[in-house]
Design brief:
The longest helix is centred in the last third of the chain and has 37 residues, at 165-201. α3 packs antiparallel against α4 (90-105), α3 packs antiparallel against α8 (165-201) and α8 (165-201) runs antiparallel to α10 (222-250). This protein has eleven helices and no strands. It is an all-alpha fold and 260 residues long. It is globular.
Length: 260
């Protein structure tokens, strides 16, 4: 346990040192060069705004986090279902895959006003749709790659024991795909928060974090706007950490998971 703790500390220490150095340089150069606050507020001012505006920022952050979480769950679930369908029916998959890629190649900022027109722009549904579109393709592509990464010898061995396709899928393809799936979920957890914030820039509830950031920036309250960005980052990292914890619990049988 002590060796594991020391190893984990040594892995996190360089990132922590770089973070402290960057924040220190940011604060020091901002003060020394007298940078205008509308260009780049000081980290100390941003943290102070997080505290003084906590009664506004954190409820707004929680509202946006729920939108991101809904989009994350919807997009990831659809991605897994699409990967299963494409992997099982290759002819249909070859026809649908270019459509999936083309839809995801469209800049997400173009979808936001369209989803606002389809759904109530004030409701959370349009923001969940934007987040779901961002999460869909990474999860689908990585899950499909995982399902197709099963070793042919394992499949032949299962068939030699008269195992059906469903049993092969459950005992061989799914365990092989799980590491790929969790890699995609970690990417999607970050994209979901981005999608929710972008959707709120085109309209949303007054207590939404994206609306709060946009409105404060428009009236030159840049410390509060940056504080909203910091809150969004913290919540995005929290969702990422939940996915990492779930990965370690689900993949406890994996040698790579045990070593990490």
């Amino acid at each position: 346990m002590s060796r594991r703790a020391v190893r984990q500390l040594s892995e996190w220490l360089p990132a922590l040192v770089v973070f402290v150095v960057v924040i220190g340089l940011w604060e020091g150069l901002d003060r020394a060069l007298h940078v205008e606050q509308f260009l780049l507020p000081r980290p100390s001012a941003i943290v102070s705004a997080v505290w003084t505006q906590r009664h506004t920022l954190w409820p707004a952050g929680w509202y946006t986090f729920k939108e991101a979480l809904g989009g994350f769950l919807i997009g990831s679930s659809l991605g897994v279902l699409a990967a299963t369908f494409v992997g099982r029916f290759k002819t249909a998959g070859n026809a649908l895959m270019p459509i999936f890629i083309a839809a995801n190649a469209v800049p997400i900022i173009a979808f936001a006003p369209i989803f606002g027109a389809w759904f109530n722009p004030i409701s959370a549904a349009s923001k969940m749709a934007v987040a779901a579109v961002l999460c869909f393709l990474p999860v689908m592509v990585n899950t499909l790659r995982g399902l197709q990464s099963a070793k042919p010898r394992q499949i032949e061995l299962m068939r030699s024991y008269a195992a059906g396709e469903l049993e092969i899928w459950r005992r061989v393809r799914v365990p092989t795909a799980l590491p790929f799936l969790f890699t995609a979920l970690k990417v999607a957890s970050v994209l979901a928060m981005i999608g929710a914030i972008v959707g709120e820039y085109f309209g949303g509830a007054l207590n939404a974090l994206g609306v709060l950031i946009n409105s404060n920036a428009s009236v030159f309250h840049f410390e509060t706007a940056w504080a909203g960005i910091l809150v969004a980052s913290i919540l995005g990292v929290a969702l990422y950490a939940v996915v990492v914890l779930a990965e370690r619990l689900v993949l406890s049988w994996s040698p790579q998971a045990r070593s990490s």
